[in-house]
Structures are given as structure tokens and as C-alpha cells.
Amino acid sequence: MARIPLNDEWTYRHPTGPFAGIAGGPETLGTVRLPHDALRDEVRSPDVPARGASAYHPAGAYTYERTLDVPAEWDGRTVQLEVQGAFRRAQVFLNNELAGIRADGYARFFVDLTPYLAYGTANALRIEVRSGEDSRWYSGAGLHRPVLLHVDQPVRIVTDGIAVVTERVEQDQAVVSVATSVVNDTRTTRTVRVKTTVTDASGAQVEGDSTPLTLAPGETSLVRQHLYIADPALWGPDSPTLYTASVALDDEPPVVTTFGIRTLTVDPRKGLRINGEEVLLRGACIHHDNGPLGAAGIGRAEERRIELLKEAGFNAIRAAHNPVSPAMLDACDRVGMLVMDEAFDMWTRFKTPYDYAADFPVWWEADIEALVMKDRNHPSVIMYSIGNEIVETGTPHGARWARRLAEKVRSIDPTRPVTNGVNALLAVIDEMPQIIEALGGLNALMADESAFAKVSSTENATVRIEESSSVLDVLGLNYAESRYAADRELFPHRVLVGSETFGGEIGRLWPMVKDSPNVIGDFTWTGWDYLGEVGIGSTMYAGDDKASGQLEREFPYLTAWCGDIDITGHRRPLSYYREIVFGLRTEPYIAVLRPEFRGREIVNPSMWAWSDSVSSWTWHGYEGKPVTVEVYADADEVALVLNGAEVARGPVGETKPMLAVLETTYQPGSLVAVAFRGGAEVGRTTLATATAPRLTASVDRAELSDSDDELAYVAIELRDAAGVLACDASATVTVTVEGAAVLAGMCSANPCTEERFDASTWTTFDGRALAVLRPADTGSAKVTVTADGHEDVVLDLTVASVG
């Protein structure tokens, strides 16, 4: 079996009709390397139909084309195209013949090219995609995940045809089954030998088996082999040990899959257990975009996000609200990040004018199969979610759909629990007038921060979601922590997870999770900032503009600004607060409210927002003026010491758990926060004022391979000679790249900007910017970072050939 990456030398353009040749043919927009997001570089505008949901990007339709050389010796073989993600409504043409289609923009799918091939010559491959008003967030458009070619013998292992399952783990061994599906596409009966070899992380063979298999013409059959691995190293979030299974037919090249040996159980009394040990999910909801790369799911970008989320204290991600890429699952397997992979954001009811709801009745079964077949050998995947905030969950026929979806998942993979992210408020949306009246009226409800939770815990909601919830192994609750205790009494067999929660409420929510055996974790909205749904987590001050009646902010807002981590990968203050709440950090943390907004009224505060604060004690121009300081600490009291003198002291927990808010006057120097418990010091941390800032740049990896999944990230910062970040400094920075790499994208964390990701010049935000490099050849590359008034910074990279 040959598996050939097909990511280079694609051209893309806007689609044209059949008569375009009369006018001279279509204009090519460029030659690109996949994964690629064509929509990223379109002009943003305040009057696009999707408005802030799409980050003010327009609708887009694109044609991707490349030549496919087909050797004569492929005649008689099966040739399939694997598309890991094409947004959206993809059509695949070979030699101008329609070979396959797919509606979902996130589904991994396969197209049989064999009937349309011309052997011994170049073939024309074309993929059409389109998007617009079909998502509640920035979707991107294009071939945003890799494309591969599979060339197989007529008797072959079926695509995704290997399933590895840990049957049981004993004291001295693990029993693992390897089920391999094989098809015979010839016209004669064939007998082949299925050879399976298992190797450990060092590459040493630890088990294997060989089984003969006879297949009649056109028959697909399954070989099940039970393997016994002595003294196995178990896979878990803290010890992500992987094994490799290589399965070959006779002497053909093997199909290789990695897997982990682990057990997984869940129940309302003992919670979630991995390998018999209880695990509470410290979860992050994440969208699929990669910031300055748009929707392009390049392997290193996916891996870097998982690494940084893990470093920030998360041990689980929830795919919001679509299946994650194979590259991200591979990264989660390696790093030890647990995954709740999610299938759909809607079923039969539209959320946007042209979304998947029209396709769902036709495609749901194929898309569920694609999700589960992609995921089932990944030990990081611990749960399948069949949807997010599905309106139909509160209706009898919606419950029927839930049952069909859940049972479809189980028919393919019975080893993992099934969940659904239920927003009980949506389930009772048609009863809201009566509910509002019962809860004291609209004004009282709108002024209540717990409005979501109150509506979700009404008897109306309890009755409405009971049947659709009963089909699940774990009920996901979006913004409905009020059900945690109640459901333990009402539904003692129900397991819950906070599938979506307000980030700033983690100090209140996490103790509820720890104290509730029936609740297995919390997933914050969101772990990583994302494009679209612009400004839902921003702080709006009196006098700010806002699109009337909309949740999103006005143009040119770009990101949601509600993530623990911003789009550059930098942790925001909420991330450190969460780490302290999780019990993973003992050192207190200091954040300062931006003094330029002091005294301005906050209007329409968002439940997705944290305070408008920065971890900085550099505020030139505000000397002698009052500032508000937040200290996050697992303590009962904190003191602020400025330049050796105590200037403020106060209790922890008056406004939020593990948070103290103190007032002082800004003076440059050293600000120390000292945390006390019972009068004894339990930790301290220091912020220093930056002196004259200098332009600095560093790269996360200086040696790359010329691969389509490789990237290098350049952190551009304004720091003084002691390395202190000058958050209040600003510079317009330009990046030039020469040699064997190209600038793939550039950005800052600024949530409101008209700057473009394909530009080579950006203005720093809070003293920082980011450039992303992609290999384009082998050899050396030179990166030069410049800004007026600063010395240039030059970085050298090396790009080696693959393998």
C-alpha cells in the first residue's frame, strides 16, 4: 500500500463557468502548499452578510487544481484520494469528471479515482469548495487539511480498516485485539496471509501474529487477532506511551497505526477512570482555526496548540464544534491530551442561513462513520460528542435523532462513551415567555448573572431534555452547573460533564466539580482565542461602538477575545487564575487593569470576559495615578509591596474565589505580591518596570524539514536589557524571509485590527507580535526583523530534506 502526500503544487482561483475560456481563462490566485485557507486573505469589510460571526470575512468560492501523474503500472490497482478537510460542499473532479462530493467541511473522506484515471500520462485533478453564512464562527474556505493519495493492490486492507482495542489489562500483560478488514476486488478467489507486528516506543518488537485469509471475488472479510503484550506501558495523560501496529498482506508494504494501551470507564459514583485511576477533566473548548494561518490545519500548528494548552494546565480539549484534524489527534496522543471529539453544531434546525442543517439528513451517517473511524485507534480520544447546543434535544423527534446518532457511534466503537453538549435553555426556547414570567420578569432575569443556570434547572428543562439525555453515556451541560446537584438526586444513574462553561467562573465551578462524583470535568469557553464571534469576551466601555442588537462587536474586531490563550499562543491573566484554581500553581499572580480605562463605565459586561488586565508594571505616563491591581492566590490575604514598602493589603475571595482586588498608586520599580494563609506567607511574585525597550526575536525551532506539516514560530517582543517585557511599548515591525522558507502568516494578539495575516508588517500589541515561517525548499533561510528606532534582529534557520 502506498500513501502519497499530495500537498504541493496546487494552484487556486475563483471558480468559473464552462465559457470562461472564451475570455481567456481564469486568473490564478497563486500556487500553494496544503493545508491552505483561501478565505484568510480576502478583504474584510463591515458590510459582509455574516458580519462579526465570520470576523467580517466575505463568502468565498475557490477552485484548487494540480496535475496528477499516473504511471502505467498503476493499471489494475485501486487509487483513492483522501481529503482530510475541505471547507465546504467539496466537489472532486478528475479529468473533468465528477468523482466525489462531501457536504461537511470538516469530515475526512475518500474518493475512488480509479474509474476516471488515464494511465501513463498526466491527469487533471480539481477540487471545488465554497463557504458563506454557513457557520457561527470563522470557518475559512479551501483545502484546510492535508490531501493524500492511496494506491493499493486489488486485494487490500480496507481504508481505516484496522481497529486496535485494549480488551483487558492484567498484572503482567495486556490483551489487545487487532481487527483487520480486507477486500478482494479481483474476479478470482484469493488467499493471503495477514501479518501483524507490534513494536514499542523504542522500536522493539513485542508481539505479532500471522493469519491466513481466503476471500471470494468481491468479498470483504475481517481477521481478528488477539495479542498478549507482556508488562505493558500504559497510555495516560501523564504518561502517553505509544505502541505501533504494522499490518501487511503477504509481502506488501504494511499499513501502520499507532495506539495506546489503556482502559476507560465512567459511572456516576466513581467518575471517569483511566487505567483505574480517577481523572477530572480540566478542559478547554477550542475552535479549529490557527490564528494567523486562518483555518489551515498544518501539523506543527496543531501540535503547538496542544503543547501550550498542556503547559497551561489543561488535560483535555473539546472540539468545538466539529471533528478535529488527524494531525491534532496525533499530537494529543504524543503529548497526553484527552479529547472529546464533536460531530456537529446543528442537526435539522438551521443556526445560520446556509449551514449543514440542510445536509444533515443526507450525510449524518457517513459523517459519524468518518469521525469514529478516524478516531478509534487514538488513545487520546475518550468521548464522542454527537452535537452542540442542538435545539431539537427538547423535542420527542429530536430525542429520536439523538438515539440514532448515539447508537450509530456505538455500532462502530462501543469502547468510548457518547455525549452531547446540551444547552437546556435552547431546549425550552419556545416556552421562554412563561419561564421568564415565573422567574420574575425579563429585567430581573437579564440582570442576573446566573440566568443561564436558572433557566437550565427549571422543571420545564428537566422534562424536555430527559429522553434525549437518556440515550447518552455522559450528559454534557452547557452553562448549566445548576443541574449538577439536582441531577444527582433526580437521575442517580446520570453522568455529567460541564461541556461548556464561562471561563471567569472557574473559581466557583471547579469546587463543584470536585465535590460532585457524578461530574467528570469542566470545559471552559474557550481555551484558545479564535477568529469570528468577534469581541464576545471583550470589555465594552461607555462610548464604544457596537453593532446594534448583536452579541459580536463592531468592525474591525477580529477575534472573540475570550480565550485563556491568545492567538499568538501567549497566556492571558485568566489562564494563570485557572492554573491556581486547579491547584497546579502555588505562586500568586499579578495582573493590572489597564489604567487608560480607569473611571470609564463598563457597559453590557460579557459573561465570556475576564477583566481588562495585563500582567505588567510598566505604565509610562501614569506615575502618581491610581491603579487597580488583581492578585490571584490560593490564600486568604495578600499584600502589595512597592519598592520595599507595603502599599496595600486585602482579603482574597470577596469578588471571586482566589482573587484579591487592591488599589494603589503607580510608581515605577518593583511590585511584589505576598500571599498569606492563617498569617503565614505561602508565596510571592514580582513584577518589575521595564526600562528602555529593545526589539527582540526568537524562534521556537531553527532546524526544519521541507515537509508540508512543518512550521517555525518567531516571537517578536519589546524587552529591556533585563528581559522585562515592555507591555506599554509599541513598534511597527517588519519581517523579511530569504532562502528556503516563506512567511506563512503574521499577527499580534490585538482583537480589533484591520491588519492582514498575509502582511509582513504588524504593530505590536502589549509589546508582542508573532511571525510564522513555513519551509519552501531545502537549504538555509534568513529571517530579518526590523522596526524604526531599533536594531535589526537576524535569525538563521536550516531546512533539511524529508527523511
UniProtKB/TrEMBL annotation:
Glycoside hydrolase family 2 immunoglobulin-like beta-sandwich domain residues: 162-262
- Location of the Glycoside hydrolase family 2 catalytic domain: 271-423
Example of a GO biological process term:
carbohydrate metabolic process
Q: Does the keyword Hydrolase apply?
A: yes
User: Which Pfam families does the UniProt record give?
Assistant: DUF4982, Glyco_hydro2_C5, Glyco_hydro_2, Glyco_hydro_2_C
The segment(s) forming the DUF4982 domain are: 624-682
Q: Which GO terms describe its molecular function?
A: hydrolase activity, hydrolyzing O-glycosyl compounds
Q: Does the keyword Hydrolase apply?
A: yes
Residue ranges of the Glycoside hydrolase family domain? 695-791
Q: Which UniProt keywords apply?
A: Glycosidase, Hydrolase
Any coiled-coil regions, as ranges? none
What protein family does this chain belong to?
Belongs to the glycosyl hydrolase 2 family.
State the protein's name: Glycoside hydrolase family 2 TIM barrel-domain containing protein
